[in-house]
Amino acid sequence: MSIREDIQTAFAKDPAAKSTLEVVTCYPGLHAIWMHRISHFLWTHNLFFFARFCSHIARFLTGVEIHPGAKIGRRFFIDHGMGVVIGETAEVGDDVLMYMGTVLGGTNLEKKKRHPTVEDGVVIGAGSIILGPITIGKGAKVGAGSVVVRSVPPGTTVVGVPGRIAEPECPSTKTDLDYGNLPDPMLRVVSRLLDRQNRLEEKLRSLERSLPGPEAERIKADLAKEEMIREALRDVIDPEVGIDIVDLGLIKEIIMDGNRVEVNLVLTSQACPLVDHLTEQVKRRVEEIPGVVEVDVRVLDEPWNWDRFMEQQILHEKLEKKLEKESVAKTAG
User: Fold this and answer.
1) What is the share, in percent, of the chain residues with pLDDT greater than 90?
2) Are residues 198 and 66 in the same domain?
3) What does the pLDDT average to over 174-200?
4) What is the CA angle 227-231-237, rounded to 5?
5) Which domain holds residue 286?
6) Do 190 and 97 sit in the same domain of this protein?
7) Alpha carbons 58 and 181: distance in angstroms, whole number
8) Residue 268 has what pLDDT?
9) Tens digit of each residue's pLDDT (9 = 90 or more) over 240-254
10) Is residue 315 part of a domain?
11) pLDDT attached to residue 280
């Protein structure tokens, strides 16, 4: 770690930097990091009061509060700086870019690890709040204004309140956040739901055309019962999202065999702390349907298929471009 390296980092991560004199004298983020190195040295040598006092002076001068106990890596850059707060047990890796208003905060009062760990190459957008002893994986991006309370896998993009993974892997290694192009996780939920609805409708039409009278009537009755089950399950709300599990797309399949019903669920993440709650709610609602005697709820170990969604997005874009060209051609004609 050196002042020269810090100045080079400022030029690399801030296109507004014009001269070395400007960077040295007018960048409060750099001043805060330099003063933190002094306060951290004092802290590690058990000079706690002087370390906190140095940190307090830095806060007064720069608007950035970094606890002297926090561990900061190399080439860490705070852009603009005002309002940044980094707690005592926070750890920040190398090549991290942090914008104004970011908070690395704690969630408990015990004297143990209670602040986030930010790994190398992470970009944290303005106004983001990261809480608790969680880990932001290497190369991840946190969108502006996000509130992150769970660990983030390496290379992913997180947006929203609470923060949710909107993209499983960042498309490039650039350190900037193009806020206009950040993916929308709720759009993925809606697109997945519409795709499943279209496939079910196609399946229904195919069955109605191919089967004879009595068999068709039986299938229509099963489909009607399935629709009743889906309507009943709209009362089951996912507490994490605030949306019912039907619209959220968590119901993959409903299988009926006489008076026995099997419901297969797919979770939005591989580890969901509310599995038992959702399973019990689903079972209770289905048992209230007339004619249902036995209910079996299975949670499938199948994460969301992001690749399928991206393929759908590409197809939708091609279709929109085609329709736009046809519209232009008609107008010109």
Assistant:
1) 20
2) no
3) 64
4) 140
5) 185-302
6) no
7) 36
8) 55
9) 666 777 776 777 788
10) no
11) 86
Average pLDDT over residues 152-180: 68
What is the pLDDT at residue 174? 52
Give pTM, 2 decimals.
Answer: 0.54
Length reported for the chain: 333
SS (H, E, C) the chain: CCHHHHHHHHHHHCCCCCCHHHHHHHCHHHHHHHHHHHHHHHHHCCCHHHHHHHHHHHHHHHCCEECCCCEECCCCEEECCCCCEECCCCEECCCCEEECCCEEECCCCCCCCCCCEECCCCEECCCCEEECCCEECCCCEECCCCEECCCECCCCEEECCCCEEEECCCCCCCCCCCHHHCCCHHHHHHHHHHHHHHHHHHHHHHHHHHCCHHHHHHHHHHHHHHHHHHHHHCCCEECCCCEECCCCCCEEEEEEECCEEEEEEECCCCCCCCHHHHHHHHHHHHHCCCCCCEEEEEEECCCCCHHHHHHHHHHHHHHHHHHHHHHHHHHHC
